[in-house]
């Protein structure tokens, strides 16, 4: 028996939690929000909340150990996205970018290069501020993924 897929969210800094819940609720898909104890999340119907300790990689480790084939993982973390892809999950960024085998190596290399520059004293820019257009693009991409799964007879 195949378990129903879940939208698994790296919720510590996820700016599209509301959009995820709305899309999931409209299609009857379960949501698991994982966050450290530093981030308080509101309990609501159809959303399971898992609070983990504050250590640096606790959320990522919990998700990596929990994610299954067919789940949808929403994360800004390229390393976690890589693990999700290896486990057979779909991985999306909060801006609606779908991580896949064609782009994840480049993203990981870019992350490494920027970290190396920062360790050398260089300053790098953080991500752009989230816009309404970004939120809309994410919700459209998530909806498309969910609809595609249903059209293909996937749970």
Automatic annotation (TrEMBL):
<dbReference type="Pfam" id="PF02639">
    <property type="entry name" value="DUF188"/>
</dbReference>
<dbReference type="InterPro" id="IPR003791">
    <property type="entry name" value="UPF0178"/>
</dbReference>
<comment type="similarity">
    <text>Belongs to the UPF0178 family.</text>
</comment>
<protein>
    <recommendedName>
        <fullName>UPF0178 protein I8J29_06485</fullName>
    </recommendedName>
</protein>
